Amino acid sequence: MARFRNLLKGDPAPWFRQRSVAQPQFSFDTVAGRHIVLCFFTSGADPRAQAAIAAVQAAPHVFNDTHASFFGVSNDPADEGRLTERYPGYRFFLDFDGAAAALYGARAQEEEAYRRLWVVLDPALRVAHIAPFDTTSAEEIIALVAQLPPPGRHSCGEAFAPVLQLADVFEPELCRTLIDPYEARGGEDSGFMRERDGKTVLVVDHSHKRR
Fold first, then answer.
1. Which of 104, 108, 135 lies closest to 120, judged by CA?
2. What is the SS3 assignment for 93?
3. How far apart are CA 166 and CA 158, in angstroms?
4. 7, 81, 82, 125: least surrounded by Cβ within 10 Å?
5. Which helix (H) or strand (E) covers residue 103, if one does?
6. Do the Cβ atoms of 50 and 44 come closer than 8 Å?
7. pTM across the whole model
8. In the Cβ-directed half-sphere of 202, how many Cα atoms lie within 13 Å?
9. ∠ CA(83), CA(86), CA(90), 5° rounding?
10. 39, 136 Cβ separation under 8 angstroms
11. Is the pLDDT of residue 157 over 80?
């Protein structure tokens, strides 16, 4: 049985350099800063691949290089003259050696076997969603990406320096395990100290600080 690498939500996206339709060497790490959809469709001759590509190309309001970008990944050498890029928003990797596909689990680790995958990355190039073609349609991926927050707010709030914000570091199950005891026993505001009538007193003011 073919064994594939399985990335999980929150994992850093593997970086790679590969040919694209327009560039002899495209450095994937340069695309950060917007939501990214990788579509490992194997071959542009496949009807399912054609339907998926047509669907995302019909959503330029989503894939506009500001909110999101689409990268199709082909493993079929015949696609070199078959695929056309469209700017903004749509590009194709010519992954004929399967190197990029192997990094993302679309190519088996020990044999020449492929599977078709959708991979959604956040603007920090971390895995936000991954699903096979067999269970997730292009329309579902488009809807998912369309409702994602603007790139500057992808970490659960407006990004600002000098704080590094990372969403989805822990699995939801672990988060629930940590939150449940707190909710069961309750908690109290830490507040802050302020001088009043010559004395330093503890003050709770949610308009100033809440922790």
1. 104
2. strand
3. 12
4. 81
5. helix 99-104
6. yes
7. 0.74
8. 4
9. 85
10. no
11. no
Residue 18 in contact with residue 99, Cβ under 8 Å?
A: yes
C-alpha radius of gyration, the chain, whole number: 22
CA-based nearest residue to 93, from 41, 145, 141, 140: 41
Which residues pair with residue 152 across a beta bridge? none
pLDDT of residue 140: 96
Q: How far apart are CA 81 and CA 111, in angstroms?
A: 27
pLDDT band at 187 (very low <50, low <70, confident <90, very high): confident
Two structure tokens written together for 112: 């020449």
| The two structure tokens encoding residue 94 | 């010519």
* Helices (runs of H) and strands (runs of E) counted in the chain: 4, 9
**Dist CA 36 CA 17 (whole Å):** 16
What pLDDT shows up at residue 45? 94
Angle, alpha carbons 68-53-49 (nearest 5°): 135
Alpha helices in 115-207 (DSSP H): 138-146, 172-185
115's tokens: 């599977």
- pLDDT-derived band at 111, boundaries 50, 70, 90: confident
Please state which of the ranges 52-61, 94-103, 170-179 shows the lowest mean pLDDT: 170-179
Start-end of H helices in 120-207: 138-146, 172-185
Place of tokens 């699995």: 171
Q: Which residues pair with 69 in a beta bridge?
A: 36
